[in-house]
Specification:
single chain; 106 residues; mainly beta; Immunoglobulin-like; 0% helix; binds copper (II) ion
Length: 106
């Protein structure tokens, strides 16, 4: 059986996007709710050297209605900086697959 694959995302991988509060990761198959999660981490900020990885507060994670996308929603638009989503998903074969998705917000 195939494992869920990250097909695309908004903002796209390594892209610099206009200010947004929503990050969407689209996968190749339906994901199991609750077992499929993602965390948004701020990895850099303009003017700040050696920014530590900082988990963003106030971010909720849900699956899209078709079950194939993880949607992270921040209570407030993300400040300018660089970010990483650490994701872990479980598909039909029940194996846990993990990955990372990096982007920036200007
Ligand atoms: Cu598997």
């Amino acid at each position: 059986m195939a494992h869920p694959k990250l097909l695309s995302a908004t903002p796209a991988a390594n892209a610099t996007a206009p200010r947004t509060g929503t990050v969407r990761l689209m996968f190749s198959e339906r994901l199991m709710p609750r077992l499929s999660t993602a965390t948004l981490v701020m990895t850099g900020m303009p003017g700040t050297a050696d920014h530590p990885d900082m988990k963003m507060p106030g971010v909720s994670t849900t699956l899209s209605p078709d079950g194939k996308a993880i949607v992270l929603t921040s209570a407030t638009p993300l400040p300018a900086g660089s970010y990483r989503v650490d994701w872990a998903v479980v598909g039909a074969d029940t194996h846990r697959i993990t990955g990372k998705h990096a982007f920036s917000v200007r």
